[in-house]
Design goal:
The chain has one domain (41-162): 2-Layer Sandwich (Zincin-like). The chain is built from 5 helices and 3 strands. It has helices at 50-62, 66-71, 124-130, 134-152, 157-162, and strands spanning 75-80, 97-100, 118-123. The protein has a 3-stranded mixed β-sheet. Helix 1 crosses helix 4. The radius of gyration is 17 Å and the shape is globular. Mean pLDDT is 76; it is low at 1-39.
């Protein structure tokens, strides 16, 4: 996907493999164990350009098994900077991703008549706020993308938490 697309445009995976391979992860050792900690201090958001974040989302989409990807129907994936709580929601609501649409398990024969695509939105800043390294960002993006795609397939939050994708 071209890196110059602004956030909010649909992401269309290209090719068969992620555009960049994830580097091998080495365990983080404390200085007392003879290692160094190169992560940023807790509470400081990790900085990543919008282009790099889009690449991480695109890479996460490439990790979806081909059978699952081919079963996805009429869904678009977007990136936005942050989630704005809706009226009646707790103003402190923080979301990493959001699925909006009609899950495949709830569609009937009339659904396709003029229905807009389902929408999966990945929120950049909340993900960067909880991560301290690029590898953590990529991992969190992958988990969030899988979580939201699972909603498209009709899997609810309780079941996702049971499966470890909460």
């Amino acid at each position: 996907m071209p890196a110059n697309l602004p956030p909010g445009l649909p992401i269309v995976p290209e090719g068969d493999l992620p555009s960049s391979k994830l580097p091998a992860r080495s365990p983080v050792r404390s200085p007392a164990e003879g290692g160094t900690v190169d992560a940023i201090p807790a509470g400081t958001p990790f900085e990543m350009s919008p282009e790099d974040f889009e690449e991480a989302v695109s890479d996460a989409l490439q990790l979806i098994p081909p059978k699952a990807a081919s079963a996805m129907d009429n869904v678009a994936i977007f990136i936005e900077d942050d989630y704005t709580p809706q009226p009646g929601e707790d103003p402190e609501t923080v979301l990493l991703g959001l699925y909006e649409g009609v899950p495949l398990t709830e569609r009937d024969s009339w659904w396709e008549a003029g229905s807009l695509p389902d929408r999966i939105t990945i929120f950049r800043q909340p993900i960067l706020d909880i991560c301290t390294t690029r590898e953590e960002v990529i991992d969190e993006v992958a988990i969030t993308v899988v979580h939201e795609i699972a909603h498209h397939f009709g899997i609810d939050d309780d079941r996702l938490h049971e499966l470890g994708w909460g």
